[in-house]
Design a protein that fits this description.
With 380 residues, the protein is mostly beta strands. It is built from 1 helix and 27 strands. The C terminus is likely disordered.
């Protein structure tokens, strides 16, 4: 299997309508939000609550080499997410997930109806594939949903609930590859109000992702590289980049204009973060914007003494998060071992000789199987 992305919404915020944060983009400034009260694991989940004909959704894809948002390009993808439904459609059905191609056309859509049954739809969004599912989705309960989406006029699809196959078959799933996942109500189908929460999303290009969860490791000290200076805020340098959610321009570090000069922050231990068991992947996260004029920065991830950079991100006028995903430890090129996380650092590298960058938050997001974990909705 090749894990392409995981998202647990553990940065605690989402970008501006249409902008990038952990999600590729979102639509619905008043119908999408981060929820700290209803979550499967960690501190947050993503909520959509469109009323009647309104929509609200998040797009999730992968990351370019620079760390900014990019699109998948796979004939078949396996999508997995957890959903908690507070309000089902009052009648008929509404979407809760869809897959889209590079042009953002539908490939596949998954709906839930007023009785809690799942329904699969072809690339036109309106042709039902097969019949309604047999399982009744209850409200206020977390469910793991797995969806396989192929490509072609008669391509294979499958929908799983808590690892059991619910719907499967073939249908017209479009001739262009999978490029992005949508969670939420992307298109109004029947004028219903719905309330969904999503957590622990994962996408793989070979099979259903391993059941896991996401937590954040937060900054708690300066790391090995400390050349950047304090642009706003007080205290030690690391205290300007330790807030989650980030505090924007209230506190931030300022890069130099010397190529290669860096700042990296040390992170709390796995024990302090509550991370145990088997580590499947780690994402470095940095939140940057330009200081005056558009400038470049390299996101740096440091494991032991090995530096791995996502180069030449052109930061804009608003803060945005960029990421670099590691399914193996760059210090060893082997699978992650739990103790290795206790030495990782995240930061930025100056890559412009004229203009500076502001960095306001660094952290690492960890995708892992907790020691003693069980499957399905909750972690025990």
């Amino acid at each position: 299997m090749t894990l392409l992305n995981f998202v647990g919404f553990e940065t605690g915020q989402i970008g501006a309508d249409g902008g990038q944060w952990e999600e590729y983009s979102r639509v619905g400034a008043t119908t999408t939000s981060i929820d700290s009260s209803i979550k499967r694991t960690g501190g947050y989940s993503a909520k959509v609550n469109p009323t009647t004909t309104a929509v609200g959704y998040y797009e999730i894809a992968q990351y370019a080499a620079t760390g900014e948002r990019g699109l998948f390009n796979s004939a078949t993808l396996w999508y997995q997410f957890y959903i908690y439904i507070t309000t089902l459609p009052a009648s008929n059905s509404e979407e809760l997930m869809s897959a889209h191609d590079i042009s953002n056309f539908y490939k596949f859509a998954l709906r839930v109806n007023s009785t809690g049954k799942l329904m699969a739809f072809a690339s036109d969004g309106t042709t039902q594939l097969g019949i309604d599912g047999a399982t009744t989705i209850s409200t206020t309960t977390w469910y793991k949903i797995g969806v396989k989406v192929g490509t072609g006029a008669s391509a294979a699809y499958e929908v799983k609930i808590n690892d059991s196959s619910e719907l499967s078959g073939t249908g017209n799933l479009g001739t262009s590859n999978n490029a992005r996942l949508t969670i939420g109500k992307r298109t109004n189908r029947n004028g219903n109000s719905v309330v969904y929460n999503y957590d622990d999303v994962a996408i793989d290009n070979a099979d259903y992702p391993t059941t896991a969860q996401c937590k954040a490791m937060l900054v708690n000290a300066d790391g090995a590289l400390t050349v950047w200076t304090i642009g706003a805020g007080s205290g030690d340098k690391w205290q300007q980049v330790d807030d989650l959610p980030n505090d924007g321009d209230t506190s931030y570090l300022l890069s130099t204009v010397v190529i290669g000069e860096a700042y990296t922050a040390a992170l709390q231990s796995t024990a302090a973060a509550g991370i145990s068991g088997t580590i499947l992947a780690v994402k470095a996260c940095g939140v940057f914007k330009r200081n005056t004029t558009t400038s470049e920065v390299d996101l740096r991830f440091r494991s032991a003494t090995t530096n791995s950079d996502a180069p030449n991100y052109n930061a804009g006028a608003s803060y945005a998060a960029i990421f670099k995903l590691f399914t193996t430890d760059p210090a060893t090129s082997a699978a992650w071992l739990l103790p290795a996380l206790d030495s990782i650092e995240v930061g930025g590298v100056s890559s412009n000789t004229s203009y500076q960058i502001r960095g306001t938050m660094f952290c690492a997001l960890v995708w892992y199987i907790p020691a003693g974990a069980r499957n399905y909705g909750f972690i025990f």
